[in-house]
Amino acid sequence: MAVTLGAALLCLGLLGCQTVASSNLRLAWTDLDAPQHAQGHSWHLNSAGQVTLLLSNPRSRKALCAVVHGNWQGEALEIPCVALAPESGVVTSSTTHAHLLHAGVGLDRWLGCNSLSYLAEGLVRDHAIQQAVVDLAGDGGWNVELMEALSPGLVLGSPAYDLSTRGWPLVPVTEYLEAHPLGRAEWMVPLAWMLGDSAAGAQAYMQVRDRYEAFAGQHGVGSQEPTVLMGSVADGVWHAPGQNTFVARWVEDAGGQYALTQEDQNSNVALGLEQVLEHAAQCDLWMMVVHDPDSFTVSDLLAQDPKHQALLDATDEVWVCNTAKHDYFGALVVQPEIILEDLISTMQFGGIGPHETFKPMPTP
Q: What is the DSSP string of 88-131?
């Protein structure tokens, strides 16, 4: 059931109370629970004894938003606070959010999404079609008229969106900045809590965790530790996840060493071709993430830039994950063990994994 925005969002900056700096919230409030792997969310009791979900940047730990059920009862804050109304509808800015909801608590209250066109085939896409989930794509990211008509009580979005001028109840979801694959999947727990069923989210997450941890120890002691670098190229610029990222952790949990030692606040490091070549020459495996409706081949790589031949010459093996075939940014976020199992197969045994998420780059 949709609710009015006025009932869903409490503008604390107008209360005139003494503010509490976001950096001091964790000291001022009582800790209730902390996630096992995620760094971007935690539960506390605020000064009024009200259960509060605190959302943060997993890298800087800067507090971004507080979320409560019902009206806010605590002190005024320097960060936004979203007060959730019962049974409020939710819209999402990412297909990832939809998959996190689906895995943890279900999609019964999902009203709209501004990235529906990116949904891969599967249960979430089927639900969107059958239930007529509204496509909210528009100028600046959102269709304003449709958003106002839906009047959602909760907007799950990237912190990059500035919706404050419209008064929309934005909750920033920063799962993509988590440093562990399980940290990303664990976001299904706070999303389930916001929709009123944290137990379902916690139970679903524990099943994901157990499956992942079962594979994480399979590479064995004394097995080879190949050096691996992952990345993608767009408009001539290579982007590789930095050292402290969930991608690097996937490689490590599969028994390898991640080649890139640089870190970046936004998780991805931009590299020139010369830098890529330097890293590739020291790698046993270069694993690319691409999006191609057909099949990404050596010819496609060279068509982007003939100088990429030097990359092929410098690297022992090039493997490709085609996101047009595998829902890398959606369903696989809540199934991180699938990527891990395939990485183990490739890195330790040189073969294609059972889920075929990575394959050798084909020649023309």
A: --EEESSHHHHHHHHHHT-STTEEEETTGGGPPSSHHHHHHHHT
Q: Each residue of 312-326: pLDDT tens digit?
A: 888 778 899 999 999
Domain, as residue range, for 262: 220-360
Please write the tens of the pLDDT for every residue from 170-199: 999 999 999 999 999 999 999 999 999 889
Q: What is the 3-state secondary structure (H, E, C) of 47-95?
A: CCCCEEEEEECCCCCCEEEEEEECCCCCCEECCCEEEECCCCCEEECCH
> Angle at which helices 198-216 and 95-104 pack, to 10 degrees?
100
Report the C-alpha gap between 115 and 245 in whole angstroms: 24
Q: How many domains does the chain have?
A: 2
Q: What is the model's pTM?
A: 0.89
Is residue 268 domain-shared with residue 289, that is, in the same domain? Answer: yes
**Backbone φ/ψ region at 133: left (φ over 0), alpha (ψ -120 to 50), beta:** beta
Whether residues 170 and 263 share a domain: the answer is no
